[in-house]
Amino acid sequence: MTNKNPSASPESALGFNFQDVYSLYLLLKDERSDLKLWVEDLDDIHIRDKDDKLTLYQLKHKKNNLTDKSDDLWKTIGNWCKLINNNTIYVENTQFQLVVIVKLIKTQIAYSLCKQYGNYDSIKARNKLLKIANKDIETREKSKGQQSSMVKSHNKDTDFELFAQLPNNIREQLVSSIEIIDNTHDVTKLDSIIPSILHGVYPDNQKDVYHELIGWWQKEIRKQLSDKSKNTLTKTSVINKIAEINEKYHKDNLPLDYEKQDLEKYRNSIDIRKDNRNFVQQLKKITDNKRRIERAILDFRLVTNIRQKWVEEKLLIDNEIENYEDSLIEYWERITGGLIDSEDFAIDNAEDKKKREFGVKVYNKTEEENIPPIREKVTEKYIKMGSYHTLVEDEKVCWYPEEDIILKLFETI
Question: Do 111 and 241 have their domain in common?
């Protein structure tokens, strides 16, 4: 099976990624709906359908040719034989697939097991495989007890023996259930193909949806590898996740994802005492509530990051951010102006306590006000409040009513 250590070599790292991407590709292109998939269990990948039919996939993401005696071929066959001998699988209920990125040569045994060329001949392949296995066993027997360059590794001999020692009917069923899929797209090509087969996703959004989908899928695979019994990967979960991600890219929505671990990291990095930003200094003047100020700093951080993502991924339409900020400023002016009139609040000669109370009221009403969102479904409060803190930084609104902006906006007649 694939070595699950992506740092071992560039080739193994590619194989590692290929397994993730190809497993997703399998579920997306398979027309059956009730599929369950495992990675690194019975084989690199195995899939069960609702009728409990099993398909094993061995993946080879390397340029090695699949010769008649190659390790890639015989180790794969040997592993399948072990599963059969151990009664882990039942050959009559299982399909076996060896997936390679190289193109096979017509003279190779493996070519006889490629259905895509219309020359599938399992009997011919079985006879040739058995002949090679028997010859290798015979050679090894002759050289027993001698040091000979003809002696192969024990594992390779075992693979030949496992195949040759299968009962005739089981060996026949095994080979007739094998399909070798050659000239398969490599991981880079698959990465470019999969977005186009995401059904129900607008073409303009396919790459973005796939980027999120493969990230989620790789995390689900890691969960399964840590506890195979509790985290079954299903086609249904993939379809549902595509729909969930796609929803964020509709014209009335925007993606808002952030990782929980990132959120915790942001929280742990907050130091109110050393934070000299304008919006933080103003909040310190109107409240002693440490958690509330930390929440404001977190909102500001989240909005800064998500806006950058929207810009980088070109998800915004025209001057969408600027128009949204203009709307926020208008509502802040209405809230502030209304409080000034209703409380007969004179900014230029108010005491600190009065200013503090006034600032808290402005902040509370701003939080509570049902202000139209940047898009219809982007209703998270941190988007609104984080954007307001950005405006405070730009001195377009303020929380503490000592700032020049108040006097400029609400000069008495």
Answer: yes
Q: DSSP class of residue 401?
A: T
Same domain for 210 and 144 = yes
Cα–Cα distance measured from residue 222 to residue 190, given in angstroms and rounded to the nearest whole number:
20
Q: How far is CA 294 from CA 94, 269, 380, in A?
A: 57, 10, 17
The pTM score is 0.67
CB 327 within 8 A of CB 371: yes
Q: With CA atoms as reference, report the closest residue to 286 among 374, 190, 403.
A: 403
Q: How far apart are CA 297 and CA 282, in angstroms?
A: 12
Tell me the C-alpha to C-alpha distance, in Å, between residue 295 and each of 269, 272, 280, 290: 12, 11, 11, 9
Nearest to 36 by CA among 19, 20, 54, 22: 54
Domain count, the chain: 2
Kindly state whether residue 287 falls inside one of the protein's structural domains. Answer: yes
Contact 54, 48 (CB under 8 A): yes
Helix (H) or strand (E) segment spanning residue 137? helix 122-142
User: Which whole number is the average pLDDT over 154-181?
Assistant: 88
Cα distances (Å, whole numbers) of residue 191 to 12, 35, 104, 207, 344? 17, 22, 23, 9, 63
Quick check: is 2 in a domain?
Answer: no
Gap between the Cα atoms of 290 and 298, Å rounded: 12
Q: Taking the CB of residue 257, how many other CB atoms lie within 10 A of it?
A: 12
Quick one: pLDDT band at residue 205, thresholds 50, 70, 90? confident
Domain with 25 in it: 10-248
